[in-house]
Amino acid sequence: MASRDQVDQDTGREGITELATQCPFCSVQCKMTVMVECGSSAGRPAIRVEGTMNAASEGRLCVKGMNAHQHANSRERLQYPLAKRDGEFIRITWEEAFATIQERLTTIQQIHGRDAVGLYGGGSLSNESAYLLGKFARVALRTRYIDYNGRFCMSAAASAGMKTFGIDRGLTNRLAEIQDAECLILAGTNIAECQPTLMPYFTRAKDNGAFIIVIDPRETGTSALADVHLKVKPGTDAALVNGMLKIVMDEGLVDQSFIRKRTKGFEELKHHLDGLDLDAVSVLCGVDRASIRRAALAYGRASTGMIFTARGVEQHVDGHMTVRNFLNLLLVTGKIGRPSCGYGAVTGQGNGQGGREHGQKADQLPGYRLIENEQDREYVASVWGINPAELPGKGVSAYEMMELMHAGDIRGLFVMGSNPIVSNPNAGLVEEGLERLELLVVADIFLSETAKLADIVLPVTSYLENTGTMTNLEGRVLLREAARAAPAESKHDWQMLCELAAGLGQGERFAFRSAEQIFEELRIASRGGIADYYGITYDRLRREEGVYWPCPSLEHEGTKRLFEERFAHPDGLAVFAPVDNRRPEEETDVDYPLILTNGRVLEHYLTGVQTRRSPSLAARAIENVMEIHPRTARKYRIEDGALVRIDSRRGTVVVRTRVTSKIREDTVFVPMHWGGIQNVNRLTNPALDPFCRMPDFKVSAVRLEPITGEEGRP
Ligand SMILES: Nc1nc2c(c(=O)[nH]1)N[C@H]1C(S)=C(S)[C@@H](COP(=O)(O)OP(=O)(O)OC[C@H]3O[C@@H](n4cnc5c(=O)[nH]c(N)nc54)[C@H](O)[C@@H]3O)O[C@H]1N2
Ligand SMILES: Nc1nc2c(c(=O)[nH]1)N[C@H]1C(S)=C(S)[C@@H](COP(=O)(O)OP(=O)(O)OC[C@H]3O[C@@H](n4cnc5c(=O)[nH]c(N)nc54)[C@H](O)[C@@H]3O)O[C@H]1N2
Ligand code: SF4
Ligand SMILES: [Mo]
Taking every annotated instance into account, which residue ranges of this chain make up the domain 4Fe-4S Mo/W bis-MGD-type (predicted)? Predict the structure, then answer.
């Protein structure tokens, strides 16, 4: 354990326990020390938190990290397993919980077939738990249906990286290279609120004279850095990039030698852009031609540059192709594989990177192997000691699993590390689907909105108590060791999977007694795969400050910059793809005249289950709000601070209004951190990207209605 009781040398005070840990929230994975001082005057231990020096956060913490201990120490934490009887939860033992789950899952599978049960994971799980969840689905339950919340997060960027480069690692370069880039494009990424401890990399770049382009329908803390802010109409980024590409090409700012030696498909792209009308692009995107031109010339002329994308451009029906267009821009100018030249898909969740590599995705086996590929099946089956024919085929994406529950095809579901009722699009259907299940099991730290619907709820350990590796947004694998014992009856995610598997007769294949033992198997299972962790060990992670994958051998130092010599496709070339200008899937009309987009605020994390239980964070943002432009607010007679009803074709929410000129006039913005009547996903469109099955979260057509009378007053 990494905790250390000590006497404070300066003050001579006894009883300070130092817990060395890592933030449970976003993909930066800031290292920190939580100092618990017992015997303070208030009677409750006083807690202080300090950032710890490391290569990503450089010792910084944001307000969420500073306060994460509050939810971990909350009285609302689940203490013991619960079962629902007559609509109420009662306490049960682990033995009863496991027996019920085993018995009911087995019955469902016997009557309706193996695929009648599903598993649903998350990007907060450690690599070890995510790996084991995938193995549990394929080996213990032998169902094809497993997917995870990262489908809503990284699938567009990940699949685009795979197609263009042959590999998906969030950042192709080290964070330290950002500060020397001459031009930075930040597209649909609000780093100031979502990865705040990374901001200094960008402010340093600015101080060094970098030209910064921000693409976002809103002015944000991030756009405050911009030399050009393209306040794009939501859902039209692909067209905007076509405009930039056309200008770069017309001005001869392409790197012919790079294109010739290292890419393929350029002629098709060029041909595709020949007839592009820049005025039409400007109208479609709601951005003036001069600004598009300024941005294109700045990026095209810079000798070094990096492009970052996040959910603002990715969470669309054409998210995959939009990212590919950003990669086209990067490739035509040859800005990759060199210092301060590269791409960053700004990964979201704490283990959003590792969580998408080791098999909790519908089509995937560990090490980024594919479940439909014969060689991959054979290799992983040999590691797992099973016949490859026993491995199921690929399943469907997260939201499609919800549709299968709604249709009665999936009848039992095990959720580990997600709150799907708040985070899936079209929450109305999702709620109905979950209610129709014969068995819903939720493993969580808290009684989340989804756990409230469950038949069985299992209490899990938090970041302070659970050892495991997390792969941060750089592709750097970090070890987070348990800093204290598991509270009450909670168990580690991986531990309950092992015990459940044993009950299902698969004990031998899940005989792990520590996270490290699982990692040892994961190393082998990933060996030779795209995400090769074979050269990484816990010892090494303790000695070094994290290791970048791919790391194929113990002697390998890890890969800090990708694509210096070749791309990861067998022929070593990167691939261009012509991308169409698209109109958003759901257009505004007289009934639904405004565009709704959504995202995050600094203080809260995802569905808010954890941060809403932290008093310091909850106090800063107590309820959901809709951002709206003053002219639009006047048009719809909506006052600042008043309650407003928002309707889409799928549902209704009620939130408070924040009038601000920082947003486009045709767009409103509502964060995603609240459930119930404040859940923005009651409104969102579940249309899916054909390449990666990412939902069209970021564009829905809505109408507004002020709530009048005493109730609605500011
Ligand atoms: N505070 C906080 N930090 C977080 C999280 C959190 O919940 N809270 N979540 C973590 C996770 S899992 C993730 S995935 C990341 C997400 O990180 P981001 O993707 O940066 O977060 P979002 O706020 O969803 O979206 C970013 C920006 O996209 C803009 N946007 C909306 N629609 C469009 C569009 O059509 N085009 C363009 N160009 N921009 C658009 C929004 O106005 C917003 O400012 O953050 C991580 N960090
Ligand atoms: N409208 C809209 N919807 C979105 C998005 C958006 O931008 N707009 N963003 C999408 C994105 S990018 C994401 S990542 C998803 C996230 O969606 P969710 O996965 O639903 O979000 P979380 O709130 O992180 O849910 C995690 C749950 O797991 C619990 N938990 C935390 N740590 C652990 C652990 O170690 N083990 C277990 N068993 N449980 C744990 C938490 O208490 C919480 O209840 O939402 C997506 N939904
Ligand atoms: S939320 Fe992200 S930036 Fe903030 S402390 Fe945690 S890991 Fe660091
Ligand atoms: Mo995410």
Answer: 16-76
